[in-house]
Amino acid sequence: MKRLAEDDVVRYADMFTAMGTEPRLRIMRLLLSAHPDGLVVGEIQAELRMSASTLSHHLDKLKNEELVGVAREGTYLRYTANTDALRQLLSFLYAECCTRNRAIRPESIVRVCK
Amino acid sequence: MKRLAEDDVVRYADMFTAMGTEPRLRIMRLLLSAHPDGLVVGEIQAELRMSASTLSHHLDKLKNEELVGVAREGTYLRYTANTDALRQLLSFLYAECCTRNRAIRPESIVRVCK
DNA sequence: TCTATAGTTCTATGATAACAGAACTATAGA
DNA sequence: TCTATAGTTCTGTTATCATAGAACTATAGA
């Protein structure tokens, strides 16, 4: 209960970078839209119109940061958003802004009553 | 009520990139800790131990993405976290994960009851 | 005006990233 | 085994980024 943020700064920075380009952020959005089924590479390519090799590199980067997972289905490869990693990233940002520091009011982000 | 995310993808990607290095993420964390007062450049430098010119470049990048603001105080320059931009970024990520898509349960991020 | 202090901008270098055509690998089906 | 399809990896080019010493700018005070 001390490594909540301090030691993981580098990891979260890498995750931010992984989502820090338009193509990759669009990929993440697309995979989130298709969650939990995910999408096959060809479907992503058809939607986002980029060369196969470029797309493959972006997917590789997202996979390295564990923001997406991949599973083979015959000749297809199906990519899915890793919601667990995203939840951690979102929690980190939320904590930095709203709880560890009181810079932002939680109610301005979300109104949950569970 | 349509440009909530679609058109701003590039901007949010740039914001993610701005926070996507360890030095800059540490700067943001530091400024959030010091919010709303912020910190003078020398104080940031003393805390994070980097050369003045390198720090200045990082601050410039954060300023370009409007993640921080700056105001002169005599010979000092005081930087502050731009909570409005951070709130937008957090809201974007929250929306993508929790509302626009239901990939992540809001309760797993935050328990707010206002 | 002269000096000291705070920070930025200039200049340069090495490292990393984005992109995409070409070649390669993996799987399914004939 | 041969072929077609789906993606990845190889190769190379171009561009951007991180870093920091040196030079410069801005402000306050004597």
Give the gist of this structure.
The structure is a homodimer of 114-residue chains. With 114 residues, chain A is α+β, with helices and mostly antiparallel strands.
CATH topology of chain A: Arc Repressor Mutant, subunit A
**CATH superfamily caption of chain A:** Winged helix-like DNA-binding domain superfamily/Winged helix DNA-binding domain
Percentage of residues assigned to helices of chain A:
40-55%
**What are the secondary-structure elements of chain A, in order, as H or E?**
HHEHHEEH
Measure the end-to-end span of chain A: 25 Å
Q: Which shape of chain A, going by the Cα principal axes? A: elongated
**What count of helical segments of chain A does DSSP give?**
5
CATH class of chain A: Mainly Alpha
The domain count of chain A comes to 1
- Order of strands across the biggest sheet of chain A? 1-3-2
What pair of chains forms the biggest interface? A-B, 48 and 49 residues
Rg of chain A, Cα atoms, Å: 16 Å
Largest sheet of chain A: 3 strands, antiparallel
Q: What fraction of residues of chain A sit in β-strands?
A: 5-15%
Summed over residues and divided by their number, the pLDDT of chain A gives a mean of 92
Q: Spans of chain A with pLDDT under 50 lasting ≥5 residues?
A: none
Q: Regarding quaternary structure, how should these chains be classified? A: homodimer
Number of distinct beta strands of chain A: 3
Which architecture of chain A per CATH?
Orthogonal Bundle
Structural class of chain A: alpha+beta
